[in-house]
Amino acid sequence: MASNPLTSPDADPRHLAERLRMHVDRLAGLIGPRHLGKPVALEAAATYIEREFQAFGFTVERQWYETQGQQTCNLVVERLGTKRPEQIVVLGAHYDTVRTTPGADDNASAVAVLIETARVFCQTSFRRTVRFVAFTCEEPPHFNIGTMGSQVYARACRERNDQILGMLCLEMVGYFETADGSQQLPPTIPKRLRWLFPRRGNFLAAAGNLRSWRLAWAFRRGFKRAVHFPLFSMVFPESVNEIRLSDNSSFWDQGYPALMLTDTSFLRNPHYHQPTDTPDTLDYDRMAQVTLGVAGALRRLARSQRGAYPGSPRSI
Which of 9, 73, 244, 306 could form an S-S bond across to 62 if both were Cys, CB 3.0 to 4.6 Å? Predict the structure, then answer.
């Protein structure tokens, strides 16, 4: 029987929290704001992520493209599936920031979880193909104008007719509060439904569009089996604009199911896009639990022996 990577020394929550803190310190503390206006810093972040992936034995592909007269790139790591290599699960996070912030939560926290999830699985064989992708240029002025790294990547996937069963988008996953009233709700949520939503910002949210309900169901099963950590998962119509504010929307626009995994950003974190979004504001012990939960969900999604998820006729 194959060993469980979630019980390996690399998955020890104490050591995991320390490594997560190190990644955030390097990206948000040492490098700081990362955008095309600071190309040296953006490249420093890309190089850091690339070297971390390479240290696990992965080969990193740089997907280059041009925007604003400058070259920039997504970083792609692929572990080919052993049984169903044509079926693909993507875990991604953007590594750039807006100009005003060092971006500890937005989005060094997510990059740290991406790196550490890849570490947990660096010796694991999946039945399906798994891709770990660090996206560039998610933030304004690129957002939703066709030049986001995730838009470039998702379009290329569609042009190749890649069979992406699900994309998991890590978007701000490090800020948690336990006080009553610390969690705000999207204003577009109807009043009659507001009682369903948590009022404390101590959970991870997994938000999908209506077409991604099977992915949301499978993600929740894998996450909750791996950790006892609060998870609020729900699918919404895309008229709830807050669920379109990250790289998951790039995959929805190409017809792929996707989830945004998030601490809910400005609905919880007062440091959003501010100079105060610094490494000391994050909760690394809870981030470690999030990492293990995401890893558990990814393990379920990529290692399922069925050609489709339960309840799905052919694919997710």
Answer: 73
- How much is the pTM? 0.94
**Residue 6's pLDDT is what?**
78
Residue 283 near residue 229 (C-beta atoms within 8 A): no
Domains of the chain with CATH codes: 5-303 (3.40.630.10)
Strand partners, 107: none
β-strand pairing of 70-79 with 60-67: antiparallel
Q: Is 198 left (phi over 0), alpha (psi -120 to 50) or beta?
A: beta
Rounded Cα distance, 292 and 132, in Å: 16
Query: Helical H runs in the chain?
Result: 13-24, 39-55, 110-120, 149-159, 213-226, 248-252, 284-303
Q: What is the DSSP string of 156-224?
A: HHHHTT-EEEEEEEEE-------STT-----TTS-GGGGGGS-SSS-SEEEEEEGGGHHHHHHHHHHHH
Beta-bridged to residue 128, according to DSSP, are 84
Per-residue pLDDT of 151-162, as tens digits, reads 999 999 999 999
Q: Rounded distance, CA 272 to CA 194, Å?
A: 23
Q: What are phi and psi of 226, to 5 degrees?
A: -85, -35
**Tokens read off for 251:** 């995959």
If 0-12 CB within 10 Å is exposed, 13-18 middle and 19+ buried, where does residue 38 land? middle
Could you report the per-residue pLDDT of 27-66, keeping only the tens digit for each? 999 999 999 999 999 999 999 999 999 999 999 999 999 9
